[in-house]
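Handout, page 2. Input:
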Amino acid sequence: MVTLNRNEVVTLNWKTVVNMTEFYSLETLNQIDADKFGNLCLISNNTNSRLWNLPPEGKKSYFLNTNKYESLKQKIMLHEPKWTLTEIEKHGKEMINKLIVK
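Output:
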């Protein structure tokens, strides 16, 4: 399991795991909730390097305005009007259900 600090990223091969609460500065989450699967997505190291100095709203605006999403999961997450623990848990369950072949 990968443990992340609130503003930390971990490089996995050519992708970077990003804590999505960084894109929504509306709610402070405890570490356990911030690390949940529903709150994480992968972006390329290149994109992470390009956007590292933007505020959360700027990062979200970049993806929404350019339509340059790096995963379907990221696109779904960024189109939520708010991002709280409720949305994180719901999104995590939805993504797990999509990944599990029944």
